């Protein structure tokens, strides 16, 4: 008797999502010192390269710099010209988790799979340059990788990696982040 | 000389806290360069110790505008998500990583890349130890590449963020690391 292989989760429709990119989004606002003060204090990073103009001008960067990963949060701020997802979330459900379900600019289309359980599988960051005060931040999401693995019971699951590149108005790449999720 | 991770994990929490090696502003201003030749396999990086409180978590939520209630609403966390308390943000941990690598490579090295997983729920009251250890080193394109094992352990030795990182240090007689950073071709 031959054993039947489990159906693949990596269907042609899922494979077709690899390389799919979202819109290029220009973030609202610019890199500013006040946002950076709040961010670096909350991070507990007292580096004077972030706030001491005189010292920063003496470093190889010649000016104040900002933490590259900061732009990933700055870029996800709720824009004032869009529906407020927080207000909407609690109007829909007074017991909302505080995240809500309003799509943010640049979101990717969903991967067409019946696997609904989502687990965090890891994060990556690559750093190429420090943002400067006044920089305008652009970003673009893409599905950089989707692969199939088999669980201990032989059931297939997916590891979906979403890559986001952040760059400034001079087209200088600041950092690339990748977030992988397991879909079971 | 940093306190070894294994030694820290044998200490009482308050003793761990006293071994915190997070630099202050002047320490970062005056930090001398570590060169590729100074580093050996097995070397440990300084240990950054954190004692997150609900106020720290709230401040991080506000700073990055993350309104997920599991990070500041204890009643929601306990009764809705059945968590043991409010939870330390994964986003905070993953922001500490590039800070940690930056600090170690300052002033002229480069904290190139890191990858890590989130494995444990961290809560106020935990003492957290950000750590790193050199696993290998190699020269390429007149730059010194250092491979690291990194993580963030609790006082009980639970690894909440196992990962790896690659940083670049200048050679003593080498050219400056290019900026913006350009990785060498494979």
Key terms for this structure?
heterodimer; A: 184 residues; alpha+beta; five-stranded antiparallel beta sheet; 5 helices; 27% strand; B: 186 residues; globular
Question: Would you mind describing this structure in some detail?
Answer:
The complex is a heterodimer of chains A (184) and B (186). Chain A has 5 helices and 5 strands; from the N terminus they run αβααααββββ. By secondary structure, chain A is of the alpha+beta class. Chain A has a 5-stranded antiparallel β-sheet, with no helix packed on it. In chain A, strand 4 and strand 5 (173-183) form a beta hairpin. By secondary structure, chain B is α+β, with helices and mostly antiparallel strands. Chain B has helices at residues 5-8, 13-18, 25-29, 54-64, 74-79, 90-105; strands at residues 48-50, 110-116, 128-140, 143-154, 163-169. A 5-stranded antiparallel β-sheet of chain B has the order 1-3-4-5-2, covered by helices on one side. The longest helix of chain B is centred in the middle third of the chain and has 16 residues, at 90-105. At the A-B interface, helix 2 and strand 2 of A face helix 3, helix 4, helix 6 and strand 2 of B.
């Amino acid at each position: 008797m031959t054993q039947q292989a489990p159906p693949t989760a990596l269907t042609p429709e899922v494979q077709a999502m690899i390389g799919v990119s979202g819109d290029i989004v220009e973030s609202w606002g610019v890199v500013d010192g006040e946002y950076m003060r709040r961010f670096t204090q909350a991070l507990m990073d007292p580096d004077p390269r972030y706030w001491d103009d005189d010292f920063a001008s003496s470093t190889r960067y010649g000016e104040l710099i900002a933490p590259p990963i900061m732009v990933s949060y700055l870029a996800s701020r709720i824009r004032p010209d869009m529906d407020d997802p927080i207000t909407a979330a609690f109007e829909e459900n007074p017991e909302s988790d505080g995240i809500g379900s309003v799509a943010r600019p640049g979101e990717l289309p969903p991967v067409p799979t019946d696997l609904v359980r989502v687990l965090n599988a890891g994060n990556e960051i690559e750093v190429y340059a420090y943002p400067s005060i006044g920089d305008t931040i652009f970003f673009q999401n893409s599905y950089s990788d989707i692969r199939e693995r088999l669980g201990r019971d032989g059931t297939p699951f997916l590891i979906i990696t979403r890559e986001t590149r952040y760059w400034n108005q001079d087209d200088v790449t600041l950092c690339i982040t990748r977030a992988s999720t397991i879909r079971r | 000389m940093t306190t070894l991770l294994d030694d820290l994990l044998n200490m009482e929490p308050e003793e761990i806290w006293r071994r915190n090696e997070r630099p202050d502003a002047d320490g970062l201003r005056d930090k001398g360069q570590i060169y590729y030749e100074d580093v050996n396999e097995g070397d440990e990086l300084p240990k950054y110790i954190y004692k997150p409180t609900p106020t720290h978590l709230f401040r991080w939520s506000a700073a990055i505008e993350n309104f997920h209630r599991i990070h500041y609403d204890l009643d929601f966390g306990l009764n809705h998500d059945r968590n043991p308390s409010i939870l330390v943000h994964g986003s905070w941990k993953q922001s500490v990583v590039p800070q940690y690598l930056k600090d170690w490579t300052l002033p002229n090295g480069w904290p190139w890349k890191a990858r890590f997983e989130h494995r444990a729920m961290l809560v106020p009251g935990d003492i957290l130890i950000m750590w790193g250890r050199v696993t290998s080193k190699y020269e390429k394109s007149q730059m010194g590449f250092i491979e690291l094992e990194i993580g963030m352990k609790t006082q009980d030795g639970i690894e909440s963020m196992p990962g790896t990182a690659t940083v670049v240090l200048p050679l003593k007689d080498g050219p400056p690391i290019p900026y913006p950073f350009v990785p060498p071709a494979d």
